[in-house]
Amino acid sequence: MIELRGVSKTVESGGRPLTILHPLDLSIPSGRFLAIVGPSGSGKSTLLGLLAGLDAPSTGEILVDGTDITRLGEDDLARLRGEKIGFVFQFFHLVPSLTAFENILVPMEIAKRRDAVARARLLLDEVGLFDRGHHYPSQLSGGEQQRVAIARALANDPPIVLADEPTGNLDSSTGRHIMDLLLNVRSARTSTLVLVTHDAELASLADARLTLRDGRPVDAPVEALR
Ligand code: ADP
Ligand code: MG
After folding, report:
1. Which domains does the chain have, with CATH numbers?
2. Given 14, 59, 67, 92, which residue has the most CB atoms within 10 angstroms?
3. Would you say the pTM of this structure is higher than 0.85?
4. Which ligand is nearest to the Cα of residue 211, counting in written order?
5. How do residues 12-24 score in pLDDT, each as one tens digit?
6. Which of 11, 20, 24, 195 is the best mutation target for the ligand 1 pocket, counting ligand atoms within 8 Å of the beta carbon and taking the most?
7. Alpha-carbon distances, residue 60 vs 50, 54, 85, 127, 198 (angstroms)
């Protein structure tokens, strides 16, 4: 369960405070699929970064399975992220000096999993790249890089998967395949999925949608999740 209480974000812009996310309350029960939609600049990535503990809110609490992540120190936060959260980025964010296989291995080595090597092979297979493990990101297409990134995000079987426009940088047919893959691997694991997307069709697949505009929810907030 993820619970946000009065979560906001204010940054300094041109020497003045600018609120990019206004105080927001939101509950996402475990195993549900929430889509976050809204125009560019509406605060979607800001919200996702806060959920992931990649950024700290200006006000409010973010409870992940009862732990307020805004009160954790860097080490505890990093551990919680490694155990609970898989993040898929628009621009893949693979480590360029590591092969596909090694990119998938990293989070499992950090988690000191003994089955890391065998599991990295399984994950590569699951995303359809069994024979591409030795390739570097620069030798892979955008769609293939995103497959690796999905495998990496799922490596430690996180109960929460966050994806920020994972198909935004891919052509529509590749994007469709990536989304099918993400939805399939996620449903096999019953993890919570929070997906930022511009794609109305994709958003319609979610259990609920949160539409942001100028850092505020539009309409009543996500009744379907309650
Ligand atoms: P979205 O993902 O919906 O496109 P973002 O969450 O990235 O929107 O950004 C929301 C708004 O906040 C944008 O106008 C962006 O320019 C602004 N913004 C984000 N981060 C900062 C920052 N660190 N400093 C100043 N403005 C920021
Ligand atoms: Mg964004």
Report:
1. 2-225 (3.40.50.300)
2. 92
3. yes
4. 1
5. 999 999 999 999 9
6. 20
7. 11, 15, 20, 37, 27
